[in-house]
Amino acid sequence: MGITARNLLLALGAALAAPGLALSQDRTAEVDRIFSVYAGIETPGCAVSATQDGKLLVERGYGISDLEHDVAITPATLFEAGSVSKQFTAAAILLLVQDGKVKLTDDIRKYLPQMPDYGRPITVDQLLSHTSGLRDWGDLAYWQGWPRTTRAFTQEDVVDLIARQRGLNYLPGTEYAYTNSGYNLLTEIVRKASGQTLAEFTAQRIFRPLGMTRTSWRDDFRRVVRGRAIAYQRAGGGWSQQMPFEEGYGNGGLITTVGDLQTWNAALAQNRLGGFLTAEMRHRAVLHNGVRIAYGRGVVVQTWAGQEEISHSGATGAYRAWLSSYPRQRLSVAVLCNAGSANAGWLARQVAALYLPPAAPEPTPEPLADPAGRAGLYVNERTGRPMLLVHNGGILRVSGGEQLYPLAANIARHGADELFFESRDVLVVKTFEGDRYRYRRTPLWNPASPALGAFVGRYRSDEIGVTYRVAREGQGLVLRLEERPTVVIRMSPIYRDAFNLTGNLARFRRDANGRVVALSLGSGRVRDLRLRKIG
Q1: Cβ pair 184, 87 in contact under 8 A
Q2: I need a surface site. Which of 89, 387, 402, 522 has the fewest CB within 10 A?
Q3: What does the pLDDT look like over 66-87, one tens digit per residue?
Q4: C-beta separation of 336 from 280 below 8 A
């Protein structure tokens, strides 16, 4: 399964051009083991491709593309690339910069006059680097009662929702926070500056010149795309479809193959679209405070396994994607999956590790001092989001998440982030992107039932056009969406005036007299969405 004529021809060409390399790099059996969970059974799966020096190392398909019709995944199968798509939107903007039609320093209101004046301009470059402060439209749609994949959002719906926001997550240029909104707006800037849609512009300037013959955009989700894999998520003991039935694109929505993604990475490495584009995509952004973050323009530039890695992940509906290159080793890896449970980045890096030099062993860490004393609730001073550290059996972990990996007496790693215990009450988190957040120890809060009465009432937001009702249920509170009565979220107290909403955050705001006057909603990509108390 997964062997195609293209695969055989490319492999033969590689062997003839450089027989020693082809033989020494034959890791097909090991790649098969990495993807073995998707082989030989009726499950969605992945396609993978790895190249080095422009020569094909491996290109395979595993699992089923269409479970209803028992169609196997091959390297020619089409998938959605999720946020891997962003680098193509960024490339379109950079080509327009090269053409003299757009400047990275332009105020976005030059092209999008419907956007509010936030008192400080948002630049085109800040959209590219996720430093604009714009709220993520997908999280806003969630608060409207329509999480993504539950409604067919058009590009016009998306832009209108973004333009209705009178508040930002932070002042432009002062922080990094990933937001799809910036790339949907970049799609519109391409249209305004070039007179073509993003789909038309990229087809003319990128896909056709490079020979990416299988690549297009999901700008019309009803369009029939032959050879496209259906995306599936786990459902009970089986699978159910979870397709991105929406027409907002530029943030995602690229339909492509692993082979076309390899063509793209090779074109960047060879400067086939110009050295300016390749260099500027990889130019890491700098915040106003001088911090250089890992995000460039549509790609992340970081070190992995001792190697510089240019990469991006992707997830839309139940599609999962990863594209990376390792310039020093001239290695490129692409993984596309139609299983929502697939960790495309982990799979791709396992493949990359087969061809990269072994990473130097990490130094023996120093034990974390007083792990039991570090346990407790910490609150992000910027966002209000909580982090609960729990201690059990000598191990400190984030509640509901991974354990901390000690690095030194006062430093630990959590995933890709580093935690610095500055004092007993202050914790600083340095994200892998390079930004830093201060967390302060805060007492847990368990209010008596009568005290909850102050929060009961109706709360309105014109920015998202909905009214929520906070109501009693048993001894606690629930949040109900009046426009969609089936949307009911249980509220669990965390710290004073703050409640957990199944992973999201609600904070009540009081006036000078202590009366509750507003409700602030927060999620991973939206901060302090204010709803005023009414009636």
Answers
A1: no
A2: 402
A3: 999 999 999 999 999 999 999 9
A4: no
